[in-house]
Amino acid sequence: MRFYLICTAWLTRLGGLLSALLLVYAVLHVLLDIVLRVGFSTSTHMMSELVGYAVGAMTFLALAYTEEQNGLIRVGLLRSRLSHKNVVRLDVVCLGSTILICGFVAYYIWLMVKRDYIRGRLSIGMAEIPMWIPQAMLLVGLLIFLLQLIASIIRLLDGQRQPETEA
After folding, report:
1. Which residues touch 162 (CB under 8 Å, ≥6 apart)?
2. Using an 8 Å Cβ cutoff, are 12 and 68 in contact?
3. Torsion angle of C-alpha atoms 12, 15, 17, 22, degrees rounded to 10
4. Residues 109-156: pLDDT tens digits?
């Protein structure tokens, strides 16, 4: 169990790091496009496409890190009225439900990635990026998030993680 938690923590931080690097890339690409437009009356002609893919990847890659840091929103209306033991139970049910929903979404993203890879589908922008690449980044982020959700349940049941009691 400890090995699983260590590996999940490592993957979670890697996802957070990749998300941060994508943010830096997006800012630099936007700045480059601004300089090219203002100073040279030209553009990269693919800034919105590439930055859009980066924002999607950032969002999904940062999910696990946000969960690990207790940064996801929890509504305290019901939780504040429950005992500690019942808050843990509620958290386990909510995390389990999230695992089921995200697992369902991950399965369909996997089918989409597989289909677009087999068909060789390209984006319609100037970059003509194989669509499975940005889709795979979403899938990787979601899979790391699923692993982190399981780790969160393990830590809750083991007493290593205290449920947040305030919204």
Report:
1. none
2. yes
3. -160
4. 999 999 999 999 999 988 899 999 999 999 999 999 999 999 999 999
Write the single-letter amino acid at 67: E
Question: How far is CA 94 from each of CA 40, 98, 156, rounded to the nearest angstrom?
Answer: 53, 6, 12
Residue pair 78/164 in contact by the 8 Å Cβ criterion = no
Note whether 122 and 130 are within 8 A (CB).
yes
DSSP state of 45: S
Q: Mapped to the 3 state alphabet, what secondary structure does 46-75 carry?
A: CHHHHHHHHHHHHHHHHHHHHHHCCCCCCC
Tokens 């959700």 sit on residue: 149
Q: Transcribe 96-135 into DSSP letters.
A: HHHHHHHHHHHHHHHHHHHHHHHHT-B-SSTT--BTHHHH
Residues in Cβ contact with 166 at an 8 Å cutoff, skipping those fewer than 6 apart: 76, 80
* Whether 68 contacts 150, CB under 8 Å: no
Kindly report the pTM of this predicted structure: 0.90
How do the domains of the chain map onto residue ranges? 2-158
Residue 17, phi-psi category: left (phi > 0), alpha (psi -120 to 50), beta (remainder): alpha
Q: What is the CA radius of gyration of the chain?
A: 20
